[in-house]
Amino acid sequence: MSTNIDRNTGSTGRSIVGSAELFGRGQRVITGGNARLSVFQRPHPIYIASGTGVNIVDVDGNNYLDFLNNFTALIHGHSFRPVLDRLHHQLELGISFSGPTKLEVEFAELLCRRVSYFDQIRFMNSGTEAVMYTIKAARALTGKLKIAKLEGAFHGGYGPIEVSLDSAPANWGPRSAPNAVPYCEGTPEWYTADTVVLPFNELGATREILEGNKDKLAAVIIDVLPQRAGLVPIDRSYLAFLREFTARHGIVLISDEVMSFRLSYHGAISRFGFEADLCAFAKIIGGGLPIGAVGGPSQFMLAFDPTNGKPLVPQSGTFSANPMSMAAGIAALESLSEQSFQRFDDLGEHACSSLTEMFRRERLPYSVTGMGSMFRIHLRPEAPKDYREAHAAPEQQEKMGMLIRALQERGVIVSPTCQLCLSTPMFTDHIDEMVTSVREAAQMVEAARLENLGGQ
Ligand SMILES: Cc1ncc(COP(=O)(O)O)c(C=O)c1O
């Protein structure tokens, strides 16, 4: 993988003309050339042709080690045989129906067995939808409107919860009382008025903010490992406080585990020894197909219950609980044992310590955060503690873009924020190979930076 590098230019000689051509064609008919902002890349993204296990192949025939796995959704990597077999079987029986299937009952039973506080589940098609329904339920159950969220945390595309997703030094306000900053142009004023932004892991300041809003708060939504906020785990004492405070004041505690559900066999918040009132989860439970789900104790899930008339929160969806997603999800989760998660922890630890040690040895001013099967590389010598420290200034973003492209040229795929995740077909060899590529890519980026500085 890292053998064909030109010593003078750093180029690996990979051709991506097919991707360039598809981008050109795409731009004519798809705004921006491809249909997901998260995979948009300058000068253009690589277009993927196929994937098997830990590898993907692009339309030009280049091979890559996939450390992104469709943004953490593919916990078994690509073309996982048990998922494919289940899907082939279901394909013959029917793709979707206007009626429930046995599969959704079986899948809900499986999930309720694994997560101790789940009495019931509702299925939908994305993490965004799952988060949206938890918020609607919290508002309906409490009769209150405000939602508190952690600064910088990403919870999907539901408007009211996008607030302060990408706040910056110019608008984020004091650290102990962050501003509610709109994300999109045209954001209604009430989105920011009804969103309370909490400083991550800052217990004293958070207590003060929550005290001031407790009578108006419907929910506090957290992610125990917020990716965009630095992929720093929540402090146990901070979580303990949030759990106790919300329970005492009749506020719904929502755990967004769309990404972090892959932290443990029993769900993410359970790994910290706590239970949420409602959990929004997605990604790995779809086995690679679109999915979202809400789970929790019956007294919260009753918000969706139609058995005694119109529910507080009507929830439907043409493809909700479609049998293909259910079949793939069951196959994916049945292949994940408690040992699979232990193995992820061990491999993740190996990856983080190898990267940290390599950065130290090579005197590269980089650091690593993460937990379990997910970790993130930061272009700063000290690991960040929260969103503000993880926030990259424009010149750092540019450097990050260079690093990501250099990694791609060496055959390693990571996220636009340099997040990486593991899949079950990965072994230490794959991790060691990734660490070598990160070293080469980082050295190239640093050399280019020094050259630029020298030229100024
Ligand atoms: C924590 C979190 N919440 C919500 C979402 C939205 O999920 P989806 O992309 O399935 O709509 C994501 C997506 O990455 C996420 O990471």
From TrEMBL:
Record organism: Mesorhizobium sangaii
Obligatory cofactor(s): pyridoxal 5'-phosphate
EC number(s) reported in the record: 5.4.3.8
Domain of life: Bacteria
Keywords: Isomerase, Pyridoxal phosphate
Keyword Isomerase: yes
Alphabetical list of InterPro entries matching this protein: Aminotrans_3, PyrdxlP-dep_Trfase, PyrdxlP-dep_Trfase_major, PyrdxlP-dep_Trfase_small
UniProt protein name: Glutamate-1-semialdehyde 2,1-aminomutase
Keyword field contains Isomerase: yes
Coiled coil: none
CDD domains cross-referenced by the UniProt entry: OAT_like
Similarity section: Belongs to the class-III pyridoxal-phosphate-dependent aminotransferase family.
Pfam families: Aminotran_3
Gene Ontology molecular function: glutamate-1-semialdehyde 2,1-aminomutase activity; pyridoxal phosphate binding; transaminase activity
SUPFAM superfamilies: PLP-dependent transferases
Top EC class, one word: isomerase
